[in-house]
Amino acid sequence: MKIGRFNLQSNDLDFCYLRTVEQAATPDYAELLAVVDVSRYFANGAHHIVLAVDTSGEAGSNNPHCGPIVRDGQNLFTHARGAILLGDGTVLAETWNGTFSPELVPMPNQVAGSFDPAAHHLLTLRLRCHYSGGISLRVRKGIGGDVLFDGAGASAAWPWPGQMRASLGGIALGFVAPKDTGCVEQIAPRSAPDARLGYVAHARVA
Length: 206
What we know:
This protein is mostly beta strands and 206 residues long. It has strands at 2-7, 13-17, 21-22, 29-37, 48-56, 70-71, 74-75, 79-86, 91-97, 103-106, 122-130, 135-141, 147-153, 163-164, 167-171, 196-205. It is built from no helices and 16 strands.
């Protein structure tokens, strides 16, 4: 389990990695469970929350970012799968593929009514990515509250490499990629310097 807080003051982006999970046999799915405090996140200009599993690679010379994107001593992944949750309630399944054109699949909400994540203080997020294919996200109000969002998106089967590392992150629209600043990320306040996201997160395979 990891406990912390994101601060988008550094180039509108922050992220963390969770403990790597190792297992010999191929599991059915990878899961990322997080309780997030969004009370000072979307209201302060943040654009979306990133939930990713099976992360690999590093931002640098062999991919479009051109240079590293380091937070807390660790470089941003380039390959993964998961979902992004936007402040307007849009949810997309995403497969990061080492390019600036990741695979994005809309995830319609199976719960009746509108979904406004910015209207809540705490949200519980449960991401599941199946190794046979398919990504789902469920969002509850608070801890154990009503289900606000429940959706799924198609994705290709994913090979099991023997271990899984998950990542939780946040970003705003003012992020400037290192490719635009001489392959060195310029760490400076952008569009959402006051955005904060508190979290408690855990990842597993099953």
